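Issue 218. Parser rejects a valid record. Input:
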Amino acid sequence: MWEIKTLTPEQFALFERLIYRKTGIRMQPGKITLLSNRIRRRLRHHGLESFEEYYTLLTAGSLKGELTEFIDAVTTNETSFFRTEGHFDWFAGPFLEEMAARVAAREHPRSLKIWSAACSSGEEVYTLAICLAEARGKLAGWQLRILGTDISDSSLAAARAARYAGRTLENVSPERLAQHFEQAGDAWVVRPSVKKPCEFRSHNLLTPLGETGFDVIFVRNVMIYFDRESKRVAVGHLIDALAPGGSLVVGPADGIYDLLGGMERKSSFLYRKPSTDGRSRAAPRAGGGA
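Output the parser choked on:
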């Protein structure tokens, strides 16, 4: 039964088209081994003997809830706390300083609205929450909200559980572990005080979020899997969701820079949406690296 190792090119094409229809993610031919391995786990789970049998049952809806499980299995990506640390240095430093100055000048309400798009298992959301917790002095009395969204239900369940171990914590200092996490056996659980401003919900980047006014949106290392048209659609939805003057933080390999023509480039990873009056508000400076 398990002598089958790898999808044939024809089988890969079938699954690749299905994934694209459902998510906008384009699996490149170089991912055939990765996709084969992940699908083979689903075959084992159901006791099936071939990729063809699984595809037929999957597309016919004969395996209840399996399409969601399949999408989860093939789109979940590894992430970690404080991944690309310079982005969070900017967020915790220049960005929060600028927002505090705008509040003091009565140019902005005492609030922050943040979106982590394609948040996977929640490490980015909680990294942002840790940054806010460490800036609580300057944010006293503010309404704080961090929304994490992802297409994967299993990733969202892991994010809500907020339980982490191993490599995902390798960039978290011992001091931060002690301050912002509680140890639970071999794992660490995010403290309730850090989790308080965070919420999670399912969302496909190819559809509008249905919510606007975000001060900053993080969307990193996901659109590398999208084709040109899917990137264009997703970027449009992200820009629509930003508040005037809001910031967009992008991944270094996402390949969307030429789709951000209406945004002001501040650094290799940072873009600013124009203000409603058409003037460019002074932006918080970012480091030169991605």
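Fixed in the parser; the record now loads. The first strand starts at residue 111 and ends at 116.
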